[in-house]
């Protein structure tokens, strides 16, 4: 039994945002019926594979059921209506207008099932100038301003390492859906959620884009404490061509570090505005390059400083902390990243991801 046992979800989404949202529901006991085309969710074909399935697909679709429906056929539409009539949540990730053309827009669906919580996930939302503009994660990051500060020292933006707007949309859609389900207990009716990747990501800039939010100029990474302008929030190369980070800007960390290095005179530099700490950054670069990454890990072990080595994913997943927290698990010959949402009263175990049309019935 999970927190969402008894909740039925009809999920038409593919790739990342929608499946991320609904796997979190499936992990908590919701019955998630994944409606797919004959070709299946494209992520089924994304390498690498383990135990006969895509690692991506398995981790975002475990615990769900799969039914193939042709929504352009009368038979497919009739079967989808049967699913909808008994559902609590309906999720779709098509471009705006597609569901209306198919005859499954919110107005039509809610007329048949007034209790339905209907969630549409798209790049830019159901209305506005960009509503029909094709985009995946990086394009929404670019248009929202985020890519401009995902840059190197020379100011050139680079491809982001995380699909932040995809993930932000999945989390936002889940939160909104749960709010609507709670509200339904009082109102007695469902609701419609227009969840945009762009909208979901935008609030994530409040700690870095304050000047622009207030109507002023855009932030420049080299002058931002969180983006490269501060010595104690910075990436440094080590002698073995690996990297470490200082990740805490509090002055107590600067005091602890610089006293230990015999340079208390530079503590005042750590108090300067971001962008004015060049001498401190240059000194720290010259220091970190003198030892290997692992030597610095040992050196920092007894120092109260926000420090970390930069690990690759293999190193990160093999860290003892991951095992102690049960965050990377093997089940039936396949590996899973455990859900971040877990409850003390429940023991989580991964379920299998469905083969295409496995639950056609």
Automatic annotation (TrEMBL):
<dbReference type="InterPro" id="IPR050509">
    <property type="entry name" value="CoA-transferase_III"/>
</dbReference>
<dbReference type="Pfam" id="PF02515">
    <property type="entry name" value="CoA_transf_3"/>
</dbReference>
<keyword id="KW-0808">Transferase</keyword>
<dbReference type="InterPro" id="IPR023606">
    <property type="entry name" value="CoA-Trfase_III_dom_1_sf"/>
</dbReference>
<dbReference type="InterPro" id="IPR044855">
    <property type="entry name" value="CoA-Trfase_III_dom3_sf"/>
</dbReference>
<dbReference type="GO" id="GO:0016740">
    <property type="term" value="F:transferase activity"/>
</dbReference>
<protein>
    <submittedName>
        <fullName>CoA transferase</fullName>
    </submittedName>
</protein>
<dbReference type="InterPro" id="IPR003673">
    <property type="entry name" value="CoA-Trfase_fam_III"/>
</dbReference>
